[in-house]
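User: Structure tokens for this complex, please. No commentary.
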Amino acid sequence: MAGSTRGSGIAEPARWGTLRRAAAARLAPFGAAVLLLAVLGAVFAPVVSPHDPLKQDLDRALARPGRAHLLGTDNVGRDVLSRVIWGTRVSLVAGFGSVAIAMVAGGLLGLLAGYAGGRVDGLVMRLMDAVLSFPPLVLALALGAVLGAGLTGVVIALGVVYTPTFARLMRGQVLTITAREYVDAARALGAPGWRIAWAHVLPNATAPIVVQASLSVAFAILAEASLSFLGLGIQPPAASWGSMINAGRGYLQQAPWIVFGPGAALFVTVVGLNFVGDAVRDALDPRLRV
Amino acid sequence: MGRLLLRRLVATIPVLLLVTAGVFALIHLTPGDPIDAMMAESVDDTVKRELRRDLGLDRPLYLQYATWMGRLLQGDLGRSIRNREPVIENVGRRIKPSLQLAGLAMGIALLVATPIGILSAARRNSAVDRVGTSFALFGICMPNFLIALILIFVFGVKLRWLPISGYVDPLEEPLDGLRSLTLPAITLGLALAAVITRTLRSSMLEALSEDYIRTARAKGLSDGAVVRRHALKNALIPVVTVIGLQLGTLIGGAVITEYVFALPGVGRLVVDAVFARDYPLVQGVVLLIAVGFILSNLVVDLLYGWIDPRIRHR
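Assistant:
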């Protein structure tokens, strides 16, 4: 396959070469460490969080960060660190879940548009243009409003918001690839359309999609936090970084740690994911390097 | 230019139609009965029936859409079910703070991003460049609401220099008005500044590696003159594009910023309408925002064609 896509800029290099290049990026190890830590925190939240994230202890409300509570407690005495750790789950599920939805839906729509061409192409792409006509957060808010507050609604809403990016990217790839000689050859050999799309076009079009996905996860996490901050995401008392920050803003003077604990977790995770995304981009598609 | 405008306008029509269909469909995406979702359970059945008839929800879907579109074309965006006022009046009351906020934020973003972007590129890999790129990364990864809370914490809570919420119209009381908009505008402007800095830096770097720059240097021009007279003009073209692309982020950011600082703008109106489950108001405001967004993008496209003649003739 590497040979077949040469010159398209999306050639699939040997797997180890790709990994080496990704790791060689300056800040990639930091990003990878952050991502690993976040994933471990999310998976092992019940084991690693020092306290029950929902247990209230009014006697210890607004306690400063200290030995008993490393990041302090909130206004009803819940341990901020434990809630931050549990919040990682929500952030990662929202980030990866919505991008996965967008990648599959957008990828399939782009494949359909690019491969079928004509009216189907026109209809699908105008539909995508229509979705892009809404400011992302406003669209997510409106969809979240009708789908109802909660993680599922937010993941679907963000999935819809990010779908057009993947559809456009996939369509562009498909148009480039279907003009190549090996696709002509497959056609001449009598391969059916679905087989050409599945076996020849799709595998060669995935690299930019993966790059886009790795860059989108960080933004999806930010978007989920924004929606939770506004009150649309996962509902209290369950912990999510955005809703914790919103709940803590009333106590900014007495207990800034309620805001800055989850705030720091959010910022570091997004920075780390950005580094990982950049590294994946540099490894898979060096032409896109800024 | 006329042809470009016409082409872009014609291309906008099907998208606008799909946008209206999408906004119309919003109310029907509600799981269960939208009337039950909008009204509390305790509300009398007659009131519910009246609202259902008012919104036309008791009629076939295609008739509902036709009526809704007919009203839309006459400028009737519907009424809020909470305050019974037309959507357009609700938005009209809120548009001024939003425009003032967006204008100020854009001004701050350009004021911050232009020198940082230019210096970063002109002194590539220097300490200045590292500070510049770190600033860009910080601004891109930092959510608006967190920037807002940090600013509130430092300038409102600790230093007590600026108000942390509320709105005073700067056209009526310039000093207090500007004070009330300073923190929100910095919040919104910083994220934008980060993206502009990043774009300006990379487009300046590209421009600086062109042959005409080498020629200008060979002629003996100073570094400053090369940057000012030759590189900057060409580097600004992608910046205009990116500002256009960032309009959506700007509007989204305005929603959050207005919410945090309790500014009575259109963004705050959307959030309030969503939580009041005032679907007709949500539909109307979202549609207006989308149309505004499409038209602003159209203007940016045309501006791009005006700045770069190569686009016009493509």
